[in-house]
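Quick question, first post here. What does this chain look like in 3D?
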Amino acid sequence: MLRTWNPADSWGVGFWNGAADPQNYKRMKVKLSLSTLTDDELADLLDTVHAKMTDNAATFTGANPTMAQLAALSVAQRSAIAGRATALTAADAALETLRAASAATRAGLSLEGSFMENRAAGNAAIIAQAGMGVRAAQASIGAMSQVQGLKTTMSDHAGAVDWMCKPAKGASAYIVQSCTGNPAVEANWHYADTATKSSGTLSGLASGKVFVRLCAKGADAANGAWSNIEEETVR
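> Answer (accepted):
Ran it through. Tokens below.
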């Protein structure tokens, strides 16, 4: 005959599987997974446990913690959660206030800097008197150096030649010239292209032999010396 489980039986925490022999009951364990719960989920679980154990008070006599202690924990948890929400709202408002203040400060200092530019007229001592930093004068690059490492190759396209060189410091552009006659005669050289990079393609060339050279153009429009001369065949 199957026996109904009596909470007074001292079989330990577990679940009786209904067998005639109480020794054969299946012992179960509590699962809470507390480390995986958020603060709000902890509060919800705490309230659920408190409510269920209160409803079944006769089963859980001598509970530790007591129901009163669980209720106190719930109040503290909910209060802390509410305090966090209030603090986050206040922090967001404070951050927005700080950002607005910093933007106004930057605008004010920028305006004051413009005033000082006019008042100081380039006098570093006057700028320093205002507690402002003095921007160093930009150093001149000077005359453009001769372009180095010019190389040419036959292009994949008819009537074209590819070229490249080592970048020249301070160069704003590269002036390319071509020559189909004697390269020793200066009059035989003609303008071919202007490139902003240290490589490019000359197109529209007649088939046959062509000579190429280039120079670097500086920011002040002063050109450097011509590079070495490269000879290429145009197909």
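Residues 1-16 have pLDDT under 50 and may be disordered.
Strands lie at 151-154, 161-164, 173-179, 190-195, 199-202, 208-217, 230-234.
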